[in-house]
Queue: 4 jobs
Job 1
Amino acid sequence: MSYSFEELTEGLSASFEKVVTEQDVQTFAQVTGDTNPVHLDADYAATTSFEKPIAHGMLTAGFISAAIGTKLPGPGCIYLEQSLKFRAPVFIGATVTTTVTVKELNERRRRAVLETVCTVEGKKVVTGEATIMLP
């Protein structure tokens, strides 16, 4: 689905869901160069407070981009700004549900502010706010 600026209303929301796989974490590490062993080495991760490997926070945050670019408002929008708060770890095998909700609209500049929330089993793992521009 794709929304034009005129179709957006405050409170409108959409969600994107993704299971985090070990391959996702490995690929993200390869693409970004973030090879922190807390993500990639089970023996190392066992010595941390997490006790097992966790997904990169920015991998999880990337699901916000997917929700914005494919669901709300969808193709053609331009990401301008994103604030993030990492609230809890995401483990391999977790299903992350990302919800974006229109908070405010600026008709003159064709911009929207979106509340962005990633959850696992109803628990918030990443929260923030995005500003986007629509064509």
Job 2
Amino acid sequence: MIEIFQNIREIYDFTAPCGELMPYIEFFSESSAEKCELYFDRGHASVTMFESWTPTFYINLTGGYVIDVGGKHHNIGNGKDILILRNGLVTRHNQPGDRIFTVKFYPGGLEAVLGLNQVSMGDRVVSLNRILPQTLLTMLKGAVSFIDRITIMEKFLLTAMRGKVASDYYSRIVLAAIGEYTTTDMQLNTSKIAERLFISSKSINRYFNRVVGVAPKSYFSVLRARTALTAMVGNRNDFKPWIYGYYDPAHFYKDVFRFTGRKISEVL
């Protein structure tokens, strides 16, 4: 299956984080035995995801699987837990019995909550036991339900975040810039966003490269393409690309091809 073009989420349960973590974490998710039984044969044996620059924990509750990151195969053995950045194409190869608990951070969210900079994680598969306490991972795997795992993880993350001396200034600016871009319907360029945050264009570029690992123009282009393509797939008849800052349909189609490597006509 291919992210956005197909419903890769239909075999998972999803929950948003608590309010204090909401600016930093997009969601918690877990593969569902019931949903896998119903929908796995629709193509979930192989799932391809596009770049998003979102650090993501994959906590392995059963079995093992293979994941392609940075053009390389990685065999994730039974009990191994990983962190990836998703700065490029990622393909995960699954079995119906796989059970994975996922924490997906927004760009810069990992640094804001745990003080870990994501820039050096590009195209890497990082073992989570280098980042999270083994006692926490053991508790998560021993929990009896998805909801219990969320409770355990949120308690840990909230404690870690509150224990920091102060929120990182650069991370806060980056998260604020992303917020400005999305709440203004993705119509503003980098310079305009910098003006709204009372910083220079040079500064906002430096902050994004330091926190996210890519320039703001490049990140906003990815975010816009993901958001607009998702909207088009959801309701093609009512889709208007200029709502998302595109000049016309040709501009949008060109951006989709650059982002996905596929023409709209090939997949829809």
Job 3
Amino acid sequence: MSTEPRACVLGWPVRQSRSPMIHGHWLKIYGLLGSYEHAEVPPEDFEAFVRAFAENGFVGGNVTAPHKEAAFALLDHAEPSAAALGAANTLWFADDRLHGANTDGFGFLANLDDRAPGWEGGRKVALVLGAGGASRAVAHALAGRGFERVAVVNRTVERAETVAALAGAAGVACGYDELWRWLALADVVVNATSLGMAGKGALDVHLGEMRDEAVVTDLVYVPLETPFLAAAKAQGNRTVDGLGMLLHQAVPGFERWFGVRPEVTPELRALVIDDILRGQDGGRS
């Protein structure tokens, strides 16, 4: 059996994931031995696959839909980022114990720091649209960055309340009937829904109440400029696409598995954009 470190991305399906491209690029430019591959694992086989990780030569891996909560349940030790969300997207072994973290929030913040310096504004109000799995990491990260209010807007208010709770005392939940109120206050506006993704309908939101200074970001990165971002740009707002979140969330895992902290460079971004333009499929993996 090879002694070179071997990692993977686990999902169902997972062939659409660009994680092997990202990690493969870093392995090449840093001249490191190792490999990173797809691992399509159906839910009923997930626990057995992870339990046999080390036996099969894996030092760890990334986890994408629909396995993040199942991964968390298998951890011997959960980093605070995973414990707060009840979900893990990065796994590794240390002292024969399975460790896990959730790097989605880290990736989200790092993308904005990189692409829109000063995006926090007064760090008073952040607005998150949607209450799916991605919004959980976003709300928690925004509260951790020091926002006084993190408003989560969703058609089902009960789901928004669950996400807003992850922002602690800063969290506020409401329906779309109150969107105008938060748009007028927000320093940053986040589309955390999948609407706007290739193959899906556009997010139907009127942005007229939004402040000129607000920074607008979308977690979707296929297409790079969603209709939501295009509408915000047309109003003169700064916009940030979702690709950087994918790139930055991969950094901590690579460092754990291969021993080098990689950089997210324009070269890497261009490599993935070229692949997107050739494929134009959906997904955030």
Job 4
Amino acid sequence: MPLLELQGISKHFGAIEALKGIDLAIDAGEVVGLMGDNGAGKSTLVKIVAGNFLPSEGELRLDGIVKHFRRPVDARTDGIEVVYQDLALCDNLTAAANVFLGRELKRRIGPLVILDYKAMYARAAELFKELKSETRPRDLVKLMSGGQRQAVAIARTRLANAKMVLMDEPTAAISVRQVAEVLDLIHRLKDRGIAVVLISHRMPDVFSVCDRVVVMRRGRKVADKAIASSSPEEVTGLITGAIQAA
């Protein structure tokens, strides 16, 4: 049984048909690259999975159970986390504070309830060690590299025991070394049985870390292939329309 299964997903915004009958299945521990030009429907599809939009038509199943995510918190409760391109981090806070933002650990001292910083630093350190990241819990985010910032955002998804992580352009605008760090973090998630959907325009990243590539064009899925049976040239053709389907 797939972890996530989409059947006939369509989305209309008035007269605009952003998605047209999308079928997609993703297994636990699978890394799927989602590619397409601007306006292809990638973001709309991900927002439906993440609970930002309800589909106009079609059905979404998680672990074989039909789901109707009306808010992002509904998707998060069921184990679907999103790492957005801007990461949504607070630069003036530490790595640990960002990991626990909105989910802070607390303890009671008599009648008072205070934040348990010691426990949060310890748990954040465990998560960074698990991800084999050099990020330290007390480091300020504003002083971090792009790769370290991604580690903080991904550690936040691990705190919630995610089943699936949706990653929006995680390697955009960072150095070659930091790209390698982020791709390694994706491998760590895969090793722990977490499914990853990687939205990216970077062909080398998709072909180095993904098991499959899904290509969208004008709201339709035009390809869903194992990486081993495709090529960057074919995917480029599918994105541009030089190749109609594969």
